[in-house]
Amino acid sequence: MTLSPLLPSSPARPATKIAVVLRDDLLGWQVANVTAFLAAGVAAGVPELIGEPYADADGTAYLPTLGLPVLVRAGDAATLAACRARAVGRGLPVAVFTAAMFSTGNDHDNRAVVAAARAEELDLVGVALHGPRNAVDKVLRGTTTHP
Length: 147
Known about the structure:
This protein is α+β, with helices and mostly antiparallel strands. The chain has a domain at 26-52 and 62-75 and 83-133: 3-Layer(aba) Sandwich (Bit1). The protein has four helices and seven strands, in the order βαβββαβαβαβ. The protein has helices at 28-45, 77-89, 107-115, 133-139; strands spanning 16-23, 54-55, 61-62, 70-75, 94-98, 124-132, 144-145. It has a five-stranded mixed sheet with strand order 5-6-1-4-7, sandwiched between helices. A two-stranded antiparallel sheet has the order 2-3. β2 (54-55) and β3 form a beta hairpin. α2 (77-89) runs antiparallel to α4. The longest helix is centred in the first third of the chain and has 18 residues, at 28-45.
């Protein structure tokens, strides 16, 4: 398999970055759930970010994962809305998780609750994005390190 140009072929600093921004009032289980959901969205939306499969010394095969670290940041509702708007404005791929999605149990209903609100009205609890390092840094303006 040929390495993706989005992934570093050595320990060098990658040219792109993956970030997840979570609302700062989420419960522990919600943090884990939203982060996993959004990271999967980045993986599905930008499949070139998937690294090579893993294998242990015994030859047991394991699934590949994202080939870049995922930066996890935090902010209030207004900060998440601003991050979403900046990412969309820069043309970066974005995944969203809204508060209403906690009450659904499937992908169909998740898409329906997102489709029911205009972009500015989304009750965001998480946003994920991928893009060039500088662009992602500008989108993340106003966020803090997640505790």
